[in-house]
Design brief:
Elements lengths: L1 H23 L2 E6 L7 H16 L4 E6 L10 H7 L4 E2 L25 H9 L1 H7 L7 E11 L1 E4 L13 E4 L3 H8 L4 E4 L5 H7 L4 E4 L1 H7 L7 E4 L4 E9 H5 L3 H36 L3 E4 L2 H11 L1 H10 L1 H12 L1
Parallel strand pairs: 1-2, 1-3, 6-7, 9-11
Antiparallel strand pairs: 3-10, 4-10, 5-8, 5-9
The chain binds (2S)-2-hydroxybutanedioic acid (LMR).
């Protein structure tokens, strides 16, 4: 009788001890992304890891997977929903299947500069978009800047007519598809990991991206011309699985949110500088010619691409587009 009671006690104790050991295990957060470490997003992910592990020792471990090394475009969102990865920061072009309104960020010539994008993102409409996918179990934690997009091609692009008939790699975005159709070019959706090879082998003739993405992927080695067009934006939404995040112990989640705010401020402070440095490196390489547009030439691109806005007004909402535009004037 006594021995049975002892056995039961020992058994209960072993569960408790196992539970304690389990509770003391750090939470592992896998953070995957598709770009290099020496980019605004790459730096942001590493800073998040550093601060989280410093301030939550033994409680949180962050594993960062850059360069599509864990999941690339096309697979990463599904992996987030399955719990195989816990944080991502896809470019804002990659959410159209989850919230149509986020397509706003792809509209060409919407924001004059990063400061305007920043004003919109930190205003009520921008913040609301961070929560627009919660019914799909995706929570937006922050916006991180990369920068303004530039064009690149195997020939000089000065006016929209120069792009006619060329094949351009685009991110998986209907807006960007239409943007290139508007200048009578042929868009081709392709994952980021395939861009260099696609350009090198001539599967595509041109693309659009930021200076830091060009430089870190060595795109300037396979594109003889780049045009400083600033015609659109590449920014990110840092996202997590809603159920995973709300299941974290409250103190851990609170501290991670504080850290995310600090990291966001730092990423956004440094993004433009990183892009300008990358531009200088590209220019100094002598491998590509950087073309500056005159105000008249830039106005032609704007005029050619702007009709795309109307096509997506129904999905995005006219009021949201108006709010974003007014961020330029603030
Ligand atoms: C792209 O796919 O071109 C980029 O948006 C990749 C990235 O995350 O910057």
């Amino acid at each position: 009788m006594l021995s049975n009671k002892l056995k039961a006690l020992a058994c209960a104790l072993s569960f408790t001890v196992a539970g304690l050991v389990h509770a003391a295990d750090p939470v592992t957060i896998k953070f995957a992304h598709v770009v290099a470490d020496n980019t605004p997003k790459g730096q942001g992910a590493l800073l998040f890891k550093k601060l989280a592990e410093e301030r939550l020792p033994g409680k949180v471990k962050v594993e960062v997977y850059p360069n599509s090394s864990l999941f690339g475009d096309g697979k990463e969102m599904e992996a987030l929903l399955l719990g195989d990865v816990h944080m991502l920061a896809p470019s804002l072009a990659k959410f159209e299947h989850y919230a149509k309104a986020i397509q706003i960020y792809d509209l060409p010539f919407l924001f004059d500069d990063l400061a305007a994008a920043d004003r919109f993102q930190s205003g009520p409409q921008g913040k609301a978009l961070l929560r627009a996918m919660e019914d799909k179990n995706i929570t937006g934690l922050a916006y991180w800047h990369n920068g303004m997009k530039q064009l690149s091609a195997n020939k000089p692009l000065r006016e929209p007519k120069d792009a006619r008939g060329l094949k351009f790699r685009v991110q998986a975005s209907a807006v960007l598809d239409e943007q290139f159709k508007a200048v009578r070019a042929n868009p081709r959706k392709m994952s980021f990991a395939e861009v260099y090879q696609g350009l090198q082998t001539g599967v595509v003739n041109g693309t659009e991206n930021t200076w830091s993405n060009y430089e870190s992927q060595k795109v300037h080695e396979v594109q003889p011309y780049m045009t400083a067009s600033d015609h659109g934006l590449i920014d990110y939404m840092v996202i997590t699985n809603t159920k995973f995040w709300s299941g974290l112990p409250e103190d851990v989640r609170g501290e991670l949110e504080t850290i995310m705010e600090e990291v966001t401020a730092e990423v956004n402070r440094q993004a433009d500088e990183l892009n300008q440095k990358a531009r200088q490196t590209i220019a100094a390489s002598g491998k590509t010619e950087i073309i500056e547009l005159s105000p008249e030439q830039r106005a032609k691109w704007r005029e050619a691409m702007k009709p795309v806005w109307k096509k997506f007004e129904g999905d995005i909402g006219a009021a949201l587009i108006e709010a974003a535009q007014s961020a330029n004037r603030s």
